[in-house]
Amino acid sequence: MKPYKILKHQNPKPFILIPHQRSLFSALSSSTSDRSQSPSSEISPDVLVESARSSQWHFIKHLSPNLDSSLISTVLFNLHKTPELALQFTSHVEFHRLDIKTRCLAIAVASRLPSPKPTLNLLKRTVSSDIAGVAVVFDELALARARLGISTTILFDLLIKACCEMKRVDEGLECFYMMKDKGFIPKIETCNALLSTFLKLNRTESAWVLYAEMFKMRIKSSVYTFNIMINVLCKEGKLKKAKDFIGFMENLRVNPNVVTYNTIIHAYCSRGRVEGARFVLNAMRSKGIQPDSYSYSSLISGMCKDKRLEEASEMFEKMKEMGLVPSAVTYNILIDGYCNEGDLGKAFGYRDEMVEQGISPTVSTYNMLVHALFMECKMDEADDLVKEMEEKGLAPDQITYSILINGYSRCGNVKKAFSFHDEMLTKGIQPTRITYTSLIYALSKRNRMTEADNLFEKIMKKGVAVDVIMFNALIDGHCANGNMERAFSLLKEMDKLNVPPDDVTYNTLMQGHCREGRVEEARELLDEMKRRGIKPDHVSYNTLISGYSRRGDMKDALRVRDEMLSTGFNPTLLTYNALIQGFCHNREGDTAEELLKEMIGKGITPDDSTYLSLIDGMGNIDQSVESCNSC
What ranges cover the PPR repeats (predicted)? Predict the structure, then answer.
C-alpha cells in the first residue's frame, strides 16, 4: 500500500487523505529546505497535475521558481485535454521565464479554449518579449500543434492576428507566407486582419500586393474583404474605381451591404464632392439597401464643410422623418457647422434639441460651443458653459483646456490662461504644443518677453516638439517689442532644430525692420526667402510698399508694386492705402487721386484710412500754398 499523508484544514473538519508517490507537503518541504539540490528534479509531473486538479494554486506558485521548462512542458501536455486548467497552471508558473518551446506548447493548449482571447494574449506576450523571432515562434507552434494533434490552422491564424493587433504587420505577413510555403491556407478573417492593418497604417500598396496573393491562392473574399479594398481605393482618392469595384464584387456573387456604400459616400463627402455622394446614395437605394444614420451623417458633414448649412439642416430633418435616430455625432456635426459660421443661436438650438431627445451632449459638444463663445470674446458665457459641463459629470479634456487657454490668451487675460494651465497639470493632463503657443502669444502681446522666453526654454527642456507656429509667435513678440537681435537669434535656432521657417516668419521679420525704418534690410529678407524656396505673398510685398511709402521713397514703392503684379498678386486695399499715404505725404495729390480712381475701378472700396490720407494730403498742399503766398 502507498503511504498516505494527512492534511489538516484550518477548521476542525474530517481529515482528507491524498494517496501519492510523494506527498504535496513533502514536496513543498524539500523545495524549501534545500534548493541547492535541484528540487524540480524531485517534484514529479503527477504531483503538479494533481495539484492543478485540486486547485492548489498557492502551492504551485510557491514552487514556480524551482520548476524547469521540461517539467512544466510535461505538465502542460498532461493537462491539454482540460485547457482551462492548463491556462490557470500557466498563469501561476511565471510564463515570462519559460523557454520558447514551452511557451508555444502553452499557447497551443490554450488554443483549444472556446475563446481566442487567452491565446492571443499569450501570443502577444511572446512576440513582444523578443525571446525569439516570429519565424521561430511559427516553427515552434507547428511542433506543438503536431504534438497535440491539432488539425486546424488556428495557431497560425491567431499568430498573424496577434501581430496585426500589435501593429507588427510585416511579421504577420511573414507568417502568412510561411503558411503558404507549408501548404496551409490562411482563413479569410486572418487575411482581412492583415488588409485592415495595412489600411490603418496607410500602406495601401502593401494591401494590394497581399490582395493579389490571396487571389492567386484562391482565398474567397468576403463582403468585409471587399469593403476594406474599397476603403483602400477611397484612401488613394480613386473614387470612380471604388464605385466600379462594387460591380466586380457583384460579379463574384458577393452582395454589397450598407457599409460598402457608406464607405464611398463618406469618401466623396470628405473630399467636398457632395453631389457625387448623393449619386451613390441613390444607387444604394436602387439596390434595395436602405441608408442608415451614418449615410446621412456623412452627407450632412459634407454639406457643413461646404458651408451649405440650410441643405444640411433639411437633410437632417429628412433623416428624422425616415425614422432614423440621429446620434450625438450627427448633432455635433451641425453644431460645429453653425459655430464655424458664427450662428450661435442655431448651434445652441441643436444642443437643446439633442437634450430634449434624451441624447446627452458630449465633451466635444461643449468644446465646440465654448470655442465659438471665445471667438466672440463672450468669456462669462464660456465660463458658465464649462461649469455646466462639469455639473453634468463631464470632465474637461486636453482640447477643452487648450480652448480655454487659447481663448483667454486671445482676449488678453493672461492670468486666467495660466491658471487653467496649472489646473490641467494638477489633473495630470499634459499641455499640447498648441496650448504652449497660446501662452507664448498671450505673454508676447503683453510685452512680457522675458517670461515668454523662459516658458519657451521650459518647453524645450520638457522635450515638446516645437514647430514653426510657436517660433513665429515668439519672433512676433520680439519684433513688436523692437528686439530684432533676439528675433534673428530665434531664426538661427529654427535652422539648428530643423524647423523650416515659412512666409509668416519672414513677413514678421520684415515688418520688424520696416517699423525701425530699415527697409533695405527688409528687402534683403525678401530676397533671402526667395533663395530658400519660400514664396513671398501679398503681405510680403505690402510690407515693403508700406515701408518705402512711410519713408517717402515712392519710386521704390512703385517698383515693389510692379514686382508684386509680375508674380501674379493683385494690389489689395492695403497696397493702395500705403501708396496713397506715401504720395499724399510727398504732396503729390494728383498721383494719389489717380490711384484712388484706379482702386475704385478695380472694385476695391476705399476705407476711412484711404480718405484720411487724402484729407491730410490736401491739408499739406494748402499749407504749402499758404507758405508760398506769404513769401
Answer: 152-186, 187-221, 222-256, 257-291, 292-326, 327-361, 362-396, 397-431, 432-466, 467-501, 502-536, 537-571, 572-606
Rounded to 5 degrees, what are φ and ψ at 145?
Answer: -60, -45
Q: Look at residue 618 in the predicted model and tell me its pLDDT.
A: 60
Residue type, 363: V
Q: Residue 174: helix, strand or coil by DSSP?
A: helix
pLDDT tens per residue, range 391-414 = 999 999 999 999 999 888 888 788
d(CA 437, CA 439): 5
Closest listed residue to residue 156, CA positions, set 122, 121, 187: 187
d(CA 565, CA 220): 61
- The answer to whether 508 and 479 have CB atoms below 8 angstroms apart is yes
Angle at 123 between CA 121 and CA 127, to 5 degrees: 120
CA distance 449 to 565: 38
Buried b (16+ CB within 10 A) or exposed e, 390-408: eeeebebbebbbbbbbbbb
DSSP state of 432: P
Which three three-digit cell numbers place residue 425? 497639470
CATH 1.25.40.10 fits 408-501, yes or no: yes
Q: Which of 268, 269, 262 is CA-nearest to residue 294?
A: 262
Q: Which residues contact residue 397 at a Cβ distance below 8 angstroms, ignoring those fewer than 6 apart?
A: 363, 367, 429
Report CA-CA distances (Å) from 157 to 110, 208, 230, 573: 14, 20, 24, 67
SS3 for 48? Answer: helix
Question: Can you tell me the distance from the alpha carbon of 547 to that of 553, in angstroms, rounded to the nearest whole number?
Answer: 9
pLDDT at 153 exceeding the cut of 90: yes
Cβ atoms of residues 514 and 546 within 8 Å: yes
Q: Are 546 and 576 in contact (CB under 8 A)?
A: no
**Are the C-beta atoms of residues 435 and 466 closer than 8 Å to each other?**
no
pTM above 0.85, yes or no: no
Q: How many residues does the chain have?
A: 631
pLDDT given for residue 586 in this prediction: 83
Integer-rounded Cα Rg, in Å, for the chain is 37
C-beta contacts of 305-309 below 8 A and 24+ residues apart: 305/269, 305/272, 305/337, 306/272, 306/274, 307/337, 307/341, 308/274, 309/334, 309/337, 309/338, 309/341, 309/343, 309/346
Whole-angstrom distance, CA of residue 51 vs CA of residue 29 = 15
pLDDT of residue 584: 87
Tens of pLDDT along 547-594?
998 888 889 989 999 998 898 888 889 988 888 888 888 888 888 888
Distance CA 47, CA 20 (A): 8
